[in-house]
Amino acid sequence: MVIAAEHGLGPPTPELAHRADLGLAQSEPFVIEMLPRLPRVGVALDVAAGSGRHSILLAGVGLRVVAVDNSIATLGALVGTAREQKLQISALAADLSSFPLPTAVFDLIVNVNFLDRELVPGLKQALKVGGFLLFDTFLADQAKLGKPRNPAYLLKHWELRELLSGLDLLEYREGLAGRYDARRAWRASALAVRRS
After folding, report:
1. How would DSSP label each residue in 123-189?
2. Which domains does the chain have, with CATH numbers?
3. Please, which residues have CB within 8 angstroms of residue 123's CB and are 6 or more apart in sequence?
4. pTM of the predicted model as reported, rounded to 2 decimal places
5. Please, what is the Cα angle at 79 between 75 and 83, to 5 degrees?
6. Between the CA of residue 156 and those of 43, 112, 135, 142, 144, what are the distances in Å?
7. Which of 59, 68, 85, 101 suits a disulfide with 122, CB 3.0-4.6 Å?
8. Which pLDDT tens digits describe the chain residue by residue (196 residues)?
9. Which helix (H) or strand (E) holds 121?
10. Measured between alpha carbons, how far is 196 from 129 in angstroms, rounded to an integer?
11. How far apart, in whole angstroms, are the C-alpha atoms of residue 168 and residue 92?
12. How far apart are CA 163 and CA 117, in angstroms?
């Protein structure tokens, strides 16, 4: 598979596998499921990283991660964990709605449980050719089950597919899905690649 060779896909070394275990417990199931298809080398962007559960997972398998969030406190805790575990994670406190993303820099962008529709075109442009975008967030049906309930943070059915137009979809699904904490939620999930 050409993508595998170009992106260093394959099993992580035993040391990296141990460090990746640090992020498995709290990572969303779709991220864990897609992990074998994601790059093992290069630079990843974790959008709205929060406590860094996905940053830790990605750095644990060998990626250099830029974790972006608007909370300095949560990023501070992540920096401490990264230092302690010797993980390559750089934290950036920023509001991405007003922070310009670089063009064609990232081998992987992970956007989980966060929705800013206006940010998506910038995310697509920030991918290198051959770079992956993993998107996993809530569908409108989630308002019936619990949070979030604000329609601004809920995707309509098939909306994610439309938002990712211009990328090649490798995986796409919508529906009721399990979460890392054993609760169920209505999710839209996609893995896409930038071909040009």
Report:
1. HHHHEEEEEEEEEEEEBTTHHHHSS---GGGSBPTTHHHHHTTTSEEEEEEEEEEE-TTS-EEEEEE
2. 2-193 (3.40.50.150)
3. 45, 47, 101, 109, 111, 133
4. 0.87
5. 170
6. 30, 16, 14, 10, 14
7. 101
8. 222 223 343 444 444 444 445 455 578 999 999 999 999 999 999 999 999 999 999 999 999 999 999 999 989 999 999 999 999 999 999 998 898 999 999 999 999 999 999 999 999 999 999 999 999 999 999 999 989 999 999 999 999 999 999 999 999 999 999 877 778 899 999 999 999 9
9. helix 120-126
10. 5
11. 29
12. 8
The structure tokens listed for 6 are 């170009």
Q: How many H-runs (helices) and E-runs (strands) does the chain carry?
A: 8, 7
Q: Looking up tokens 């999710």, which residue turns up? A: 187
Report CA Rg, the chain. Answer: 16
Percentages helix, strand, coil for the chain, rounded to the nearest 5? 35, 30, 35
